[in-house]
Amino acid sequence: MIDFSIFGIDPLQVLILLPAIGAVVVGAFFRQIWIARIGALAFSLVTMALAIVVFFVYQNNAESVNYGYLMFSQPVPWFEVLGSQAAFGIDGISAAMILLTGILSPLAILVSWEVTDRAPMHLALLLLFEVGSMGVFATTDLMIFFLFYELSLVPMYFLINQWGSPGGRLYASTKFMIYSIGGTLGMLLATQLIGWSSSLATPEMAAQVQGVLPGFEAGMHTYSMQALSVLWPQLSNSVGVSFLGTSIETVKALAFLGFFVAFAIKVPIWPFHTWLPDAHGEAPTAGSMLLAGVMLKLGAYGFIRLVVPLFPDVWISEVFLGMNFATMFAILSMLGIVLGAFAAFGQNDIKRLVAYSSVNHMGFVGMGVAVMALLYGQAWQAAQTGSGTLTADALQTGIIATNGAVMQMFNHGLSAAGMFLLAGGLYHKTHTRDMTQYGGLWVRAPIFGGIFIFTSMASLGLPGLNGFIGEFLVVRGSWPIFTALTAISMVGLLFTGSYILKGIRAVLHGPFNLKWRDYHLELHYNEMWAIAPLMVLMLITGILPNWILLTINGSVTALLNGIG
Amino acid sequence: MNLVELPLINLSDPNTLPWLIPVGPLLAFFIITLLTNRARWTPATDHAYGGHHPDYEGMDVPIVTDWSRIISITVGLSGVIAALLIAFNLVGQALAIGAGHFGEGEEVFKSSIEWLAAGDSPFRLGVLVDPLTLAMLVMVPIAVLCIFIYSIGYMAHDPRQSRFFALISLFAGAMLTLVVADNLLLLFVGWEVMGVCSYMLIGFWFEKESAYKAAIKAFTVTRVADVVMLLGIAYLYSVAGTLNFREILFDPEKLEMLAGTPAIIFGSWGFSAAGLIGTLLIVGTIGKSAQFPLHVWLPDAMEGPTPVSAMIHAAAMVSAGIYAIIRMYPLFVGAGEVFGAADPHHGIFSQPLLLMAIVGSFTALFSATMAVAQNDVKAVLAYSTISQLGFMMAALGIGAYIAAAFHLITHAFFKALLFMASGSVIHAMEHGEHHVHEHHAHGHGHDNHHAPHGNADVAEEHSIEVHEHPFDPQDMRNMGGLSKKIPVTFYAFLAGGFSLAGFPLITAGFWSKDEILADAWLGTSEGFGPHALVFFMLAIAAFLTAFYTMRQIGLTFWGNARTEEAEHAGLGGPRNIVSITMQLPLIILTFFALFAGFVGVPTDFPILGSIFSPDHNFFHHLVIYTLPHLEVFHPDPPPFNLIPVLTSFAVALGGIWLGWRMYWRKPLLAGQEDPMINILGRTVYTTLQNRYYMDQLYEVMLVRPSKWIAHQVNVLLDKGIIDGFLHFLAHAFTWLGDLMKVLNKWLIDGVGDGIPRGIYNLGGWLRGSQTGRVQQYLLAVLVMVLMIGLFFALTASSAVAVQ
Hints:
The complex is a heterodimer.
Chain A: H1 11-29, H2 33-61, E1 70-71, E2 76-79, E3 84-86, E4 89-90, H3 92-111, H4 119-138, H5 142-151, H6 153-163, H7 169-197, H8 203-208, H9 225-234, E5 242-243, E6 246-247, H10 248-266, H11 275-282, H12 285-310, H13 312-315, E7 318-320, E8 323-324, H14 325-345, H15 350-385, H16 392-430, H17 441-444, H18 446-460, H19 466-478, H20 483-507, H21 525-543, H22 546-561
Helix pairs in contact in A: 1-2, 1-4, 2-3, 2-4, 3-4, 3-12, 3-16, 3-21, 3-22, 4-5, 4-6, 4-12, 5-7, 6-7, 7-10, 7-11, 9-12, 10-12, 11-12, 11-15, 12-15, 12-16, 14-15, 14-20, 15-16, 15-19, 15-20, 16-18, 16-19, 16-21, 16-22, 18-20, 18-21, 19-21
Chain B: H1 20-34, E1 39-43, E2 60-64, H2 66-97, E3 109-116, E4 123-129, H3 131-154, H4 161-180, H5 184-202, H6 209-240, H7 245-249, H8 252-260, H9 273-288, H10 297-300, H11 306-315, H12 318-327, H13 329-333, H14 351-372, H15 377-397, H16 401-439, H17 458-461, H18 482-485, H19 487-501, H20 508-525, H21 529-557, H22 564-567, H23 577-595, H24 608-612, H25 618-623, H26 642-664, H27 675-680, H28 682-689, H29 694-767, H30 774-802
Antiparallel strand pairs in B: 1-2, 3-4
Helix pairs in contact in B: 1-2, 1-4, 2-3, 2-4, 3-4, 3-11, 3-16, 3-23, 4-5, 5-6, 6-9, 9-12, 9-14, 11-16, 12-15, 12-16, 14-15, 14-21, 15-16, 15-21, 16-19, 16-20, 16-23, 19-21, 19-23, 20-21, 20-26, 21-26
């Protein structure tokens, strides 16, 4: 713990409170559109500044906590009967995500100046979404995690439902909501199961978590993620415990499935992805930016933070045709990469094209997580059975794959938000998403054209820009583990190029479509201001990725080295 | 904590200097993109927007301002000149160390930084200048500078000239990055950025359908190879733990391990890790260096402005593929079961080497046959590039990596020369066309393209076509007699052409091609099959090369003008800026195309050997220290042998003679058919002209199926099956909900409402009994009494019965 607070409040709590206050103030008190816009922007900018500070505070103090969790305040009991605590802390992975959320929110707000209908409420919902995501990334308590996870759904639903494009918004928002609720239903159950069964820990186990959860004794409940990731995997029938008469293995399988489905929907992992093209396609520009940039990361973060450390034994247990869960997950990720790319290639709707590109890119996150899960599981098992540890090579592979997954999350956040910004802006100007209606826009909108190509190339994974770093690391990490799957994924990578080029061709190339002769097609100033930081980050991350990767790598290394 | 380590650059330290080489052009890219691209909005019908751009009626388009042109040219040139000066400085410092010493062991210029955190052993990225880099550092900046100077004139009237300079600056920066990279990953960065630059530049006139299609094709086809190469890089990184060239290639233990480990897949086919990695990397080169079957993008790539073609075909891009292979050469040799077991100089081949020998020699010949039947002046050159790259690839396959490097350098010079000379021809023809156009009546031409478009039919206006020239200024059948109109270009073209044809002794192309043939012959004479294949295929290809080059020059420059346009062709006078900037680079490159070969004359070559290589073959002696000092990499240069030399003489002179006989002695007349058609027969000729119909084949076999799959994934899989299942669930639950609603209504509501209703009804019925008549009441009482009496009687009797 280090001494850093904002007027005596934990800065991580401030990151959550600030946009919450902003949402209330903007939504309830600002009736003038301009005041609302500036107010929302101001709140999100202050939050962004704090997020940046928090990231670098972590980076500078990471070594003092060995790249583990850095806390800024003591946890306080929150729901004492359940043993849930209001605990906030970050490591390198969550710090990167907080940074991403902090950066994207003001940009989304800047872009949503295009909204004139009930603008204050629209802006308030964007801020409310930031509350939810910040909470997910900042907390270390499973119960609080769940609450914020659910909280982030609500504003997004209303954003799509009320401000989405006329025509498909009702269908899209309903689909989005039902998909998500359907997923989190199992997650709620899983959260409860894990929390309640934490009381089954033996005194020896309880002794192991004194470092992260002082005062924990056998028989007590806890929702502390750090404590649970030590306790929960060790619970098994062989320890002689059962839960409500059910074997603990069954409970684990149920909890695993609950988490798995919830997060797989959110990432999205193929075939849980079909809500995404609809939701992204119909959402207002700012909504799709945050959906793609932040919301999908909630799922991937859930995998890395919860599903991998809590279920190492489940990941490596065989389920189907001699394959374990991790391999199944890798297969699904591969399908996401390949089929996502094909689906994007088949689109004529520009926002759906970008949406499917998310399925394609997040597939690489899934692939990295699969490698992490497999190696984490094997290392955990080796530690439990006392049969040594993983080889240094395997560990290195796992670290690289996980680094790649986290980098890909960050990078996809930048480039997908950028792509949606451009695509949404274009839709706003032309009122059509049909790419065949565009053509030759580069003639009249040279700045837009250049930025569109730049962002597309970042999304395509051009070396020298950010997208490549994550993809390369994941491919490097997954090749020795899932060789054939990695090789097949390359088909997806090839078609990533195809759909990106298709997008560029349809929008910019060809003779100018004179239909748009009297339209203003060039980027507006607010759009330029919003995309500029993204472009700078894409370039810097591509050229010197270590500015962020060093921190991520530290925490990932600590995580994988400290198994068992 | 040091967040990101930046290279500390010390100008007096040659180790850190290579970082600065790519910086100039890259900086130029950013400066031009961000600062010097101001445009003025001009009506699209203005002639400044002519040429390759459509005339949009009633619309303003941005055209770069004059001062932006000047500044972007200045910035671009400064970047390249800075790179050139630093590169030459380094070359000078290296040569001061001396060939034979530089490159030996640690005697290289290198510097690296921690770039990518990976667990506890970070990935380091840096720069390296070794002898192979030196050769490239001479060739690339000179060629690029010439291309830049040339572009000043060539693009002088283009409305987006500053964008062009930004992009070729980036292109040059990427190539230089690739050249100075000390590891495969940075090389790949340069490699891919070049891919994007070529995409942008091939499609520079993006309003033209042929241009953007060619751009997409180039990017997609090379990406097929690149994703495979990425696997190779990932594999190498995971096995070797590093991608640094020297750390892998100069470490016998690592090579031994790579060669001795069975491959992670295909191991049962006899692939070792090195063999598989090598094969994956070679696929990357097959794409980038346009080898069969991924060569299809290169001929289309001439859709870009001609300086771009020179960039892609000579200075950068395609050279990069060959360069990467030479860089990683020990990996391919170490591909047997044991490292060093594969040694092409002793006739033992590994899979990657065989792949290169076969693909290279086949491509060399295959592509030369296509070049023979082309009528587009740039298409001939495009096929010749593919063919020449095949020469290099084949040379690598038989272990002649120095010959390949040599040919890479000489080819770059003469091919850059040829492309720019052909650009000059095209420019001259366009000039002639313009001239003819102006002298004809004003009744036709632009005006009928300006039919006023009403606002009512805006939808139809989408189909506005780019103003295509009815006259093709690139078609050689429209030319003829240009030697008198543009003499400087003619002599330059002739020099470049002779170098390409391998005209004996006085051209650079002869020496490099001869060295490849000499290496191939050495193996052939020892009875090694792949060497023989390479030797004979390349000899035939060389013959065809000489022939089609003479055909090209004959058709273009010799005889009399076959069209009015050719009659008026010219560069617009000797003293204008276009003429000067376009001809100066030709003169510079002519020098290199002729004399660059003298750095690599074999020592034992009669007479010339003792003049140019008294002690040792300079190029050979320099470049050989790129690789570790092991016998397998340091073979002696092939001894002088008359057979390959005479073969070189014979094929070059024979081809030239045949070309002369067919196209110079009796030059083609206006309207006359190509005499080739009679010789080959029309079917063969058409097949060659249509590139063996491979584009059509790919269209049917690859492009359409992938579009079909994409469609099916959307319609059938996502919307059909997955969403269908979800909708089914939704319907099922909705139905269930409806069922519940019905049940509610009938059962629950039925019961709930039924009981009160029943009571109500009962009451109603009972009310009916309240008649008020005493007789009826008494009757009812009587009935009840009887019933009660009966009940008691029955229960009592049954009680008695039980007792």
